[in-house]
Known about the structure:
Elements: E1 5-9, H1 13-24, E2 40-42, E3 48-52, H2 58-63, E4 69-73, H3 74-79, E5 85-90, E6 96-103, E7 114-117, H4 120-130, E8 135-138, H5 145-148, E9 154-159, H6 163-167, E10 170-179, E11 181-186, H7 187-192, H8 194-208
Parallel strand pairs: 1-3, 1-4, 7-8, 7-9
Antiparallel strand pairs: 2-3, 4-11, 5-11, 6-9, 6-10
Adenosine monophosphate is lined by residues 13, 73, 94, 96, 157-164.
Amino acid sequence: xxxxxxxxxxxxxxxxxxxxxxxxxxxxxxxxxxxxxxxxxxxxxxxxxxxxxxxxxxxxxxxxxxxxxxxxxxxxxxxxxxxxxxxxxxxxxxxxxxxxxxxxxxxxxxxxxxxxxxxxxxxxxxxxxxxxxxxxxxxxxxxxxxxxxxxxxxxxxxxxxxxxxxxxxxxxxxxxxxxxxxxxxxxxxxxxxxxxxxxxxxxxxxxxxxxx
Length: 212
Ligand code: AMP
């Protein structure tokens, strides 16, 4: 639609931390996704709507133009294989770290340690840069169990407070990346709808204290 802006966001921490930023631009959703099952939320601004989708789908919707804007974690963007997106702004929300972790004092038994993770691309790139051979084991969740049950030597996962690692007897070994949520923009929309999108980026940058 020519004069509308759709913003793709995932439910949970990113939505909860992004809405106060949008509220400062006077964009407020009419429904709360924690209470409503609606996937498209109208806002108080008739030309702006918010799409509630899975975090890993946000770059796909934006790259393909189904949404003009999106808010996605740097972990998701690093893992995403497309590259046709603008990423103009670090929103500084949903901060955490991508870490290598393992059992305390445990040494890998093989020359090619096994690493369990859902972040296969990030893990592959990280160890390629280190020049270390590893075997990557793709998991979809509860990575902490990998070393505990002997499935893997190490894991690569997001760490916030460190409580999940600690509760499972794991320690952090290496810091891979600092993670926070970024504003992403469809490249064609940036040109076609620049009169709507550029002021939004500028205002969001002012709100989070970043320069664009
Ligand atoms: P914590 O116990 O606080 O270190 O949190 C770790 C758990 O929360 C892990 O299972 C992570 O996958 C998840 N987690 C932490 N921060 C984030 C984030 N910003 N986005 C998504 N998942 C996160």
